[in-house]
Design goal:
The protein is α+β, with helices and mostly antiparallel strands and 113 residues long. It has a single domain, classed as 2-Layer Sandwich (Ribosomal Protein S5, domain 2). It is built from 3 helices and 4 strands, in the order αβββαβα. It has a 4-stranded mixed beta sheet, with helices on both faces. A hairpin with a 3-residue loop joins strand 1 and strand 2. Helix 2 crosses helix 3. The two termini are 21 Å apart.
């Protein structure tokens, strides 16, 4: 995922969480709001209790790759925040990807329907 497609500022995270629409499943919580810029952006966050920094960074990288494969940032109409839940660690990468795909489909963010 390119840097232009990432939400990086804390204020933007808070704005999307408080003013966005919430969707959730076992592995992820998704907040979406209509995009403010030319391309859609996604922010990824997870609780500090999930593991050490190395493990959290690995989970963020995996989630970024899932988003890159599933979302077309040019045609998507929303900015989003993805919060990773504790159950993520219990499931395999493919199961988590399916969960994220279902959640993005619910929020109408997928490039393939």
């Amino acid at each position: 995922m390119k840097k232009i497609n990432r939400v990086r500022k804390s204020q933007e995270f808070q704005k999307l969480i408080h003013m966005g629409t919430k969707y959730a499943n076992g592995s992820f919580v998704l907040y979406v709001r209509p995009k403010q810029e030319a391309q859609a952006r996604i922010g990824i966050t997870l609780p500090g209790k999930i593991g050490h920094a190395v493990e959290r960074n690995k989970i963020k990288r995996q989630t970024r790759m899932m988003c890159e494969e599933l979302v077309d940032f040019n045609s998507c109409e929303f900015d989003a925040i993805i919060i990773v839940r504790f159950r993520y660690k219990e499931l395999s990468y493919s199961d988590n990807k399916k969960n994220l795909e279902k959640l993005l489909c619910k929020a109408t963010m997928l490039k393939r329907i």
